[in-house]
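The passage that follows is intended for readers who have already worked through the single-chain material. We present the inputs for a multi-component assembly, then the predicted structure in tokenized form, and finally a short commentary. You are encouraged to pause after the input and sketch how you expect the pieces to fit together before reading on.
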Amino acid sequence: MERVLTIEDLYVSFDTYAGEVKAVRGVSLHVDKGEVLAIVGESGCGKSVTAQSVMRLNPEPPARIVYGSITLCGQDVVHAGDKQLRSIRGKDVSMIFQDPMTSLNPTMPIGKQLTEAIRHHQGLGAAEASQRAVELLEQVRIPNAAQRVKQYPHEFSGGMRQRVMIAMALSCSPQLLIADEPTTALDVTIQAQIIDLLAAIQKETQTAIILITHDLGVVAGMAHRVAVMYAGKIVETGSQEDIFYRHAHPYTEALLNSLPRPDIDRSSGRLVSIPGSPPDLFQPPKGCPFAGRCSYAMKICQEQMPPNFPQGEGHEAACWLLHKDCPKTMRGGAKE
Amino acid sequence: MNAEKLLEVRSLCKYFHVSGGTLKAVDDVSFDIFRGETFGLVGESGCGKSTLGRVLMGIYTATKGEILYEGAQLNPNRPGARFRYAKKAQIIFQDPYASLDPRMTVGSIIAEGMIIHNLYDGRRRAERVNELLEMVGLNREHANRFPHEFSGGQRQRIGIARALAIEPEFIVCDEPISALDVSIQSQIINLLRDLQERLNLTFLFIAHDLNVVKYISNRIGVMYLGHLVELASSEELYARTLHPYSNALLSAVPIPDPRAEREKRRTILTGDVPSPIHTPPGCPFAGRCPSVCAQCHSEKPALREVLPGHLVACHLVGDDGVFKG
Amino acid sequence: MSMSKAKNAAKAAFEPEKLLPIDCDLSAEDFAHVGPDAERRDEIVRPSISYWRDAMRRLKENKVAVACMIFLVVLILFALIVPLVSPYTMSEQHLQHPNEPMFFRAEDGHMHIFGTDDLGRDLFMRLWLGTRTSLYIAVSVVVINLLIGVIYGALAGYFGGWIDNIMMRFIEIIIGIPYLIIVILLSMIMKSGVTSLIIAYAIVGWVGSARLTRGQVLSLRTQEFIIAAHALGSSPWRLIGSHIVPNLLSVLIVNLTLAIPSAIFTEAFLSYIGLGVPLPHPSLGNLAQEGTLRFMFYPQQLLLPAIVISLTMLSFNMLGDGLRDALDPRLRT
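Having made your guess, compare it with the prediction:
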């Protein structure tokens, strides 16, 4: 299996008026060729910051990579200079953003924007580039691609713009595609279209994808592996099946249980909810960051951050409940 | 449930004049809301659900049609009537960042309604702010802080406390959880349900997430392009979905369960929602409908009751409540 | 400099969090169940800071803006105090000492710090009195313009529709009239002087802030917190007074600071061409005008008022920029 991206022990902080906000605190992950890794978590958990660090897109300052290494296709991203970063961006890794409305330049026709990156990286001529633009639009299933390349962003609907963004991200056949909440700003019926499109393109091109989302439904639809983040740390990683059916971390459990599923209604009583809000990373708590909201919290949880306990092939979780000495009675509830 | 009608909406229209024509945000919508129930309103962005909510709040004036509150006609243009209605009907917004005045402390945000309606004296007001803060799950120490210091879920609680401060009986919840995180969403839903029970509130719950609406609502209306296309009790709507749009909407919602997601038969709609400025003459959904027929393009289907309590606007649904697509 | 060094040192010293190994030995006591901690999970750890205090903090960090502020305070103090304590009056002529150089000491022992003009009047006294006049005119003009503009613009923006339409057309008519014509017409009707100058400028000057306010109000009006207050049943006056204006203040303060230099310049210009403050009363404009006549022989008579005009305008502009940065919530980190 070819490794596309390796992140090791990454720490990213933001300098603000109140002091240092530790947005990412020791994240390690990897992505292989042809796989979809979903990073799931709530807003402010550091999932976007982690992903944007791969492209070094966090504005520096206030952001800075405090510690750790990022290796993308054999290149060191953390110490890369501006020139090297420019060649990495677009060619090796590209990104789809949440808001397709603001990510396109309103004064430039779609075709020209699409081929800007190709012309920069591959030095194509104008005629070839416009031919390629039409192909790209066809690849993302936009009808009448030959006419559409001459149109401006305002002539495209939200869903169509997100397709254009995907086409643009794919234009240089990157090794890794980072999709940062690609469907959040879209309507439900359009969301389904975009997820299907992304999954189909992923199958065709075998591009590795990092899918950042808070929507576990989207994860269930297309991810191969899942990393659950909380308060700047990855608390559980595993295959899609591991996370949905054999989850070991109480946060993953609570997250899955708190979703209103289609099979419940008014008569089913209260929803399971996680009390409180995530900690402020300006002053992260000692020990496990989830301890304050965790119904299983133990004394050790408030004092020591748990290490990652392996739970089988490629599945690990950071929770003291999984320690060999932890009494098995601590955790009720049947699991598969 | 007692069937006392709190709010009756009769052929309500709200048009906006924009460059390029008339935007029919809400077009000929009729329904009732009963006292003590939660009426869910679902639809995609631009379908007019938020506009409808604001017309019902008296924030916008209806272009045509009428709204009866407790049997009396509502006329938001008469200042006195608007003021008295504000005491009864309140609104909770989607965006907990934009809906709180950034220059005011949380305490004065919550107290504002009491000051406007001249409820209680100064000291009682301060006590009431503390009570409200605790009622929505915040601390009384939070009263002196500013909105930007709170997290999204906490701000939404502040918004709820503001709406509750003047003891309304009807609350329009305009996508109150769409901007919140998953773990916070369920907190807010539970809070709203508890408050409804405790204070005997009536909710109009606007959302685009069908699972959430199903969970919280007694009855659900599905909107598309300014029209109400289907209306039924929430169990009925899920058990027997009649309108093709409701069907597509239901099947588009991703299920957080990979196995179920793989097995699910999905109707993926092609195309986008048409512009509400140049609406097609026939059924608003005709352009995207998988089972469209000739009649759909020429004639607008009326919302009619096909089964007890189940209304649908579709030519393909027979009077016996069977879909013949 | 030292701060960045400290940061670098901190970077080098950074050690990643050390975790216990997964097979470490723990006692049963460590696994005692404590459950979720209600205190800890809803705590707000950041210090509470209001918008205005936060803005002040950012302004203080801006060295240039602070320097400008200090300069302006000193300038205003000089303009207020010097004319009171000076041994000379503004029109007191010493014909035996015309056009004396700077730091000229007269027989009576008093010093003419900036020298004298061709009538032997003390320039130090006249310059600070002129600064006072100019600042007085500029500030009153700007404040009057702002008051009229904000009320007019807020009403137009808030009520919108045909009211807005009529009010905006009226503004366009006013913009069509060159203010120089109004000044000349007014000086024919009224006695020329400070008051008529302020009135003339106020008649046309408020349109800028009216347009600015209207634009801001239009965008504020659609904000959810304004709709929320409206839904609570608050009256238009309450809405404007307690929600719209406080949220406009930051923009208005910046606008006010940036409008002062242009008002100073306008006053100087009008006085320079003889339509402004009538002699012998000094203003920065007519001092500069007199200075030009003798620039070839006594350059300080032009340079001194010119320097005061330039520095004042520059300070107000840079302070305005600093304020804009400090008050803009988009730059908040």
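Commentary: Residues 83 and 125 of chain C are 6 Å apart (CA to CA). Confidence is low (pLDDT under 50) at residues 1-11 of chain C. How closely did your sketch match?
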